[in-house]
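Run folding on both entries below.
>entry_1
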Amino acid sequence: MTISVSAAADAPEPGFAAPLDLAAPDIGRTIVRLALPAVIGLSINALHHAANAVFVGMIGAHAMAAVSVVLPLAMVIGAIGEGLGVGAAAMIGRLLGSGAAGRASVTASTILTLAVPVGLAITLVVMSVRQPLLATFGANPDTWLMADSYVGVMAFGATLTLLQIIADFIAIAEGNTRFSMWTLLGGFALNIALDPVLIFTLELGVSGAALATILSQLAVLAAYAFYFLARAGRVHVTLHLVRPRSSILRPVIVLGLPTTLASIATAAAFAMVYYQAGSFGGDTAIAGLGIALRMLALGSLPLIGFALGAQTVLSFAYGAGNRARVLAATRFALAAASGFALLYGCIVVVLARPIACLFSANPAVQDVAVTAIVAVHAAFPLAGVRLVVLVLLQAIGQVREAALVSLAPQGYLLIPLLVVLPPWFGFGGILAALAVAAALASVLAVALLIPVVRRLGASQFGPESVGGEKAT
């Protein structure tokens, strides 16, 4: 069934909520205009988590450890939303590039609606097995009650988390990273305002931090409801366009599956990391490592935001069959992402001690955090290449190769190293495993990029010749 969409969906009136022209001739400028709001938005998201950690750290080391051990569960919930969002964004971009705005609207409406039953199912599962989960994540008697209360509030917000993530990806896919940025900025400001009130004034502790996040998500979703109802973008999101069919769901799930699996593998690896850290150094090691991994996220999220902006251009160009534009966008994205990754990695390593002091006043936690920050950022300068290669593979539909790249740094490369190194080298083995896996994953990404670039440059290139499937 063909869904028709008015011309206004393809060329909305310029304004605050209007998407950018994805076919603009200046590729570098287009990527920057798309990526900058995404970078700012995801940086704000990272600052949001960092600020939450600062407030929680004021409660004490046990509170920081309690929130840290729950992090893998939050990552699993986010993984499902990111997988659906990445798959939807890739398909929406390719459909818009091929001129099929109606099919893009159907895809967006269907995937966003799917978030509701999936989120409710997550809530039921988590609430049913949360105590075994906490035991698996390494919660101990000192952190158990705080971790349990934090999980309870987080579980009830699963549906909101999925809806927000997917709505962000839809806006980004149609070229409106600015709206995504402003909603994240508003959510961050509200969350930071609520944190001290709920955590300290109302004496809700770590549960207050989780509740502040849920309330800020409600505000962001209200903004997206207005955005979609006003039909401000290229695609329309309405209930009457929902089509829960395999022809719509399957390509989205297949394209997003590498991202979901990678995030779940990351959650499993982090659970393993925190469990091992606790066995070697107790709550002090868990809290110190948690600080380092939050700083890693603070640098990774802007890179992901930039990659998402690049993916929007890559998917649109691939859907239009424009090989020169795909190659030019890839070259620009690789250079820009690598430059940022190198700069951030060097700055964080140099400022490791002041950063650790910002998160904790405990000297023992600070010492662990400094060592961990330096170690986990050793390979960060290579992260930009890996992320750009990943979004390129997703944009052109090379699902298997994308899965190899996304599952490498926290999956099949990291977990074996976590099994082998810590028994020999203790806490240092955990840090070495994280650094070595990240470096090897980037080398793998480069190896996969070379043949893709060669095929993209071939004269017989068409929408179906690289990814093995037609873009539309």
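>entry_2
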Amino acid sequence: MSEPSVAVVILNWNGKDLLSRFLPGILQSDYGQLEIIVGDNASTDNSVDFIREHYPAIRIIENDRNYGFAEGYNRIMAHVIADYYILLNSDVEVPANWIKPVIAAMEADAAIAAAQPKIKWFSDKSKFEHAGGAGGFMDRNAFPFCRGRIFDTLETDQGQYEDQTAVFWASGAAFFIKRKVWEESGGFDADLFAHMEEIDLCWRLQNMGYKIIYCPGAEVYHVGGGTLATNSPYKVFLNFRNNLIIMQKNLPFWEAVWGLSVRMCIDFVALLQFLLKGETKFAAAVNKAHYQFIRSTRKTASKRKNNQIPYAKLTGVYPSSIVWNFFVKGIRYFSQLKDFR
């Protein structure tokens, strides 16, 4: 049986330096039916000319302007044909054998829609990385976290997460998805612009009856913060706003009503914490996130489907509060979490 075709698609915006650094390794990927594509979001740093000159084998698809991560990818993927898509950040280093183990795991089960490899930190390859670690999970209040990373604590990889397992979400830093599922789901929600679009997609996929997995047989190394710095107020705004949006979209109605009420109260506490620390720009970002969320509720309601699964029955949901456990009880590692289904 011939291996399925794979398209690695890198969305670029003014990332010439990252492309020059990491494209050579991607081109050495050990996989037969492989196409490498750079989708460009109207860069102004000569990225496209650089690729054409130095990497003529790479296909370039250009957007007419910067549509952000979510819509930018949607527009690029409309021009890509392969059995599997790998959406890969431009700031990721890959070893040669990073594709085959994940594709093999996904081929083994028709119910698997999306997956991620082990994601480790480029600056210290002994540690898991913030964007995905060893697979993504959600707590009872829809706060995302990872095996190997809870908030700002990164675990050292000591072989503790070598089991292939179903997770709530796969990281957008190295996101594997079957093309037919991408098309069936409609891809990313363009209104999210950037951040949590992969969590929203994975949540929708679970509601559609699919599984998301973490595959430890492959690993990649993520720089992180390639487009928005970790201390960016705009990033804070996107994360707080988008988290509320995906809750409204994907929770059953009464769970959404209750869950959003609780989350907005927790967010208000975070806003007060920012103010007490003198971080007024971050406090303003949380306030703006709530304002924009409330303005968008009617539009978001129109995106709700009729197949929402009760939140507690989804794979990868931690039935307690990761915020309480981390900040009050001092729990820093995934292995310390109790009552995890």
